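One example copied in:
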Amino acid sequence: DNEKSLVLPSNEDLQKTVNEFNQFFTAKIERIRQSFRSESGTTQDTPSPAEFNELSDFDLTTEDEIREILKETDIKSCDLDPLPACLMRDNKDLLVPIL
């Protein structure tokens, strides 16, 4: 059986989980960059972070900030979006408080 079973991390420590995801994807990106270097035969180094940045401090946003972002950006969607753009656009004043 060649199928891999999906193993999700526990969410007991959210900060630890976020940092582990950060480390995983940083390492993955570096492996991809290394494979490009070896395939092309170039020795030019791309800068890689000496250490990863922890995602630990987040500022709360306000309803006014969300409204401003929605006003300044195009509201678009695709078939995979759980909320069609027209519903977001037509009901943003109702939705902003819960975002």
